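We read letters as residues; the fold follows as C-alpha cells. Both lines appear below.
***
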Amino acid sequence: MDTYSLLYSSSYRTGLLSGLQRLRDQKKMCDVVLEAGGVSFPCHRALLASSSDYFWALFGEKTAERLASSINLPALTPVGLKTMLDFLYSGWLSISPSTLPVVLEAARYLQVEMALSICERFMTESLRAENCCYYANLAERFALSNALETANQTIAMEMKVLVQKRRDELLELNFESLMAVLDGDEIPGVKEVELLKLALDWLDENGPLPLLKSNLLLSHLRFGLVASSDLTNLSHAHKAMTTPLIRSQLTRALEYHQLGPAQPITQNKQSTLRESVNHVLLLGGGCSADLPEQQVLVFDSRSRKFSSSCCVLPVRLRNPCVCSVGGFLFVIGGDEIQKGDEKTSVTVATSNRVWRYDPRFDLWEQMESMQEKRAHFTCCTVEDVIYAIGGRYTQSNINTYISVASVEYYDMAAGLWRRSAAMPQPLHGHASAVLDNSIYVSGGLPGQQGIIHGSNYSDNQHDYRRMSRQFLFWDLKGRVWEKRAPMSVARFSHRLASAHGYIYALLGMYEPFSDIERYDPQSDHWMRLKPLITGSFNYGMVPMASGNLLVFGGRRWSDGHELVVRSVMEYDTKKDHWREISQLPRPLTGIECTLLPIPD
C-alpha cells in the first residue's frame, strides 16, 4: 500500500476569501442583493449561508427568499450591514465606539457569533471611567454577559469619579447594571449616602417603576452605613422609601445606630463597608521612641504604597494595644504622652482608657475603660472578644512601675470590662497570639515592681538577665493557664503571630541575635528558623491573610548608636524567607499595626 502525506496551506483560506471579496467588489457572480436603508450590497448566497445561521435559515429549501434576487433588511443600517459583510468576506471587523451599536445590531440580527465575540473583547479591553456606563448599556442590550459583568465592575471601581463628573451617565444606566453595582462589596471612595441619593435620583429619572423593582433596587443599599440624620431626612423625601420593605430596613438601620458598644458584634451586610480588602493601619510610633505621633498611616499591601488616613489618634500613646473587631478599630491603654509648655517637657501617665474608631463615619468614641491601667501589655481577640493580658502601670512623675498578672475581657454586649483568670505571675513586655481559639503568651519580664529607665537600650541592659523564655497556654473553656515548652531564646517586647497552624516568635529588645523560631502545638516543640539579616526591635508587625508577616520600621544598632529604620520587611512563613518590599515615608519606631477595611 502506498504511503501519502497530508499537507495544509495556511494561505489558501486567506486567498479564497480575497478572491471572493474581489468578485464582490467587481459585482461578478453575485446571486443575491441585500438592501438596508436604500443601499444595495451584491453578495454570494453560498458564502452568506456558510457564515451566518440567519442566512442559512433564510436560504433554506422551503423559504420564500430561497430564490429571491433581492432581500431587504429594514432592521439594519447601511453601516452595520456593510461592516458585517466586510467581516464575512475578509475576517476583519472594523469597529469604533461610535459604530459599535450598529455593528452589534447587525451581528446579533444576522447571528454572526464570531463578530459578537470580537465586539465583546473590544469592549472589555477598553473599559474606563469615560465609557463604562455606555458599554454597560450596550452589553445589557445585546446580552453580552462577560462585557456586562466587567463593565459593572469598572463602574463600581470608578464610582467616585462618575458621581463627581459623570452623574448624568449614571442616571442613564440600565436597571440591571445599577442593581449589580449596588450589590457589590467594593465601591471605593464613595459614601453610602451618595449611593442612596444616586438611586433615588435614578428612580426619578427613569420612573415611575413598579414597587417591586424599586424595592429590589433600594434593598441593595446598606442603610447601616448612612447616618441617622440622613436616613430620617431621605426617608421622607421620596415615595419609594415609604414602602413596608424599605421602612423595615430603615428601622433596623436606626436600631443599629443605637446599639452603642454592641455594634461590632452585630455586624451584617447592611453595616459592612464596601471595602473587600483589608488595609494595614499603622498607629502611634514616631521618629523618636519618646514622642509618638497621632497621625495614622495606611499601607495598601497590593500596591505597596502608604497614604495618610483622615483618622488621627485622640491622644499620643506609647505601648498601647491595638486590634479590630467587626470593622471597628480599638486602641487600648498605653502610656499617654502630653507635651508641656517647654519643648522638652513631657508628662507620661499610664492609661486604662479605650478608644473606638468607626471608619464608616470617621468617628472616635471613648468606650468603657479597663478596670486596670496597662502599658506594655498584650491583647488579642477570640471570637469577637478582646482580652487584655498583664502589663505594667506607672503614674506621672514616678519612676517605678508595678506589673500585673490580671486578665480582663471586654463584654461588648454589655459595654463592660470583666475579670478573667489571672496569669501565674505578673508580667509585662510579653507577646500573645491566638491559634484554634486558644491564647498563647510568651516571654516578657516577670516580677511585680521595677524602676523605669530611659528608652535607650544601654540604660536597660540589666533587664536582659530577667527576661523570660516561658510559654503559656490558656484554654478559654477551662479558664486555666498551662505551661508549654519554653522558647529557645528569652524575649522581651517581641511579637508572636500564628500562621498555617504554627506560632512564630519574632525578635524583641535586648536580643544579641536575630533569631526567629516556630512553635508546633501538636508536638509542643520549637524550631529555629532563618534569622532576619539585620536585627531590629520596637517595630510594628501584622499577619496577613496569606500567612505572611509584615514588619514595619523599628530600631536597630549601628556603630554603637540606635538608628530608626524605614524598611518594610515581609516574612514568607512557608518558604522561611525574608525580603524588603517597601519603605516607610519616614523612619518610625514604636508602631502598632492591625488590619482594617477602611475607605480610601
User: Anything to note?
Assistant: Residues 285 and 292 are 4 Å apart (CA to CA). DSSP finds 15 helices and 37 strands in the chain. Confidence is low (pLDDT under 50) at residues 455-461.
